[in-house]
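User: Run a structure prediction on this.
Assistant: Running it now.
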Amino acid sequence: MRTLRAPRKPTPSRVAPSYGPGEMAESDWSPYTIDFTAAGRLTVQAFSYVLTYSPRKAFSVYLSSDLHALMDGHTHAFDRFGGCAQRCTYDSQKPVVLRWEGTQPIYNPRFLAFAAHYEFQPRGVRGEPNAKPRVERGFWEFERSFLNGRSFRDLDDLRAQLVDWLDRVVDLRRRHGRTCLERFAEEQPRLVPLPRHPYDTARVIYRVCSIDGFVDWEGNRYAVPYDHVTDILPVRITQRELFVYAADLSCVACHELAPRGAGHKLDPAGLHPPPRGRSPMDLDQLAVAFDGLGPGGAAFFRLLSAGPARVWGHQARCILVLRARYATADLDAALAHAARFGALEHRAVERILEARSSPRTLDEYVAEDTARRLEQTLGTQRAPSHDLTAYDRLPVAHASSAVLAPTAAPTQETYPCPSETASPATTPAATPTSPSSDSDDTSPSSG
């Protein structure tokens, strides 16, 4: 009988939640270590976004799983589907959920701004292993069907093969007699339409341009024109490029991102031509930079530049870099103290600063630089202060003083308010008090 009886269908341990077309999506990350034939071994982060009804999938690969990569992965998925689901389920990853207050998730404000731009609602879950089964199953498919038996030259080659695999294999795979594309045709009209302009997922930071004309990012150095040395510069970083802007927000340099921690020194545009017998940062430029610090900096530079340039050039560069860590006034005082005792090495100046001053934050550097530029533009004149008694002659002054007057009886003769009518019958006579009396009682004493 057992050989003739049909086997029972296995009962699922957990039932996957069901949603209508365009109602819900699931998203998550999964790390993988891949041996690239050209780039070597790298640990990459695979991003997945799955529509629960179709279920059509979108994958992207990044070197990190931070907030900016998360938003970039969403934008690529939305472009692939031509819209987004009304809601999306996430676990407690920090780019989405900062913390939990009881059962309420406290979302990352930057990610909420991203969700509001595309008009979808995030749904954070914790302690629910079956809350997003489709995206977890998608990673199993990513490992078995895509990574298995393939080789990649570098990250760009992996991304190109991933797009081809999604279009030719995943979208055409049949499930319950229908492909994902056939079910997606029913779901696509229910998706939230995309806005006219995509959300800018780039990272914007500030960096101090070093004295040799470079800005640092993730273990690499990117060239900037020499005109911006020791300046605070906005830097915009996408997943592939790095843009450097001047103080007036004009783009002064553009670079392709180098691998993280590679230690490269990049100058593809030739912003720094090789020196021909002299340093690219000449004496005049260094003198202007030290004069801008104050009298202490100018006096220090006169002593420092007395010797050969090959001796003091390195010291001058290292001292100017200290502007990023200490206030200009503190650095000028330290240089004056160092010049007084003939301590012309940058390490001596740094020890003076460590003993006498406290490091400042980058925001303070920006505020000081902004104040300096405003002073150059508007001048040092300020609006003169006015005599405060001029406000007492305003028409509302008497009415306001009547409302705010103290309740204690005055010791001098006073005048009634303009809105009151003085009447001898109703106005009580003031009782004189002794100037030497310390009592607060102003009532008439009984005889």
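The longest strand covers residues 24-36.
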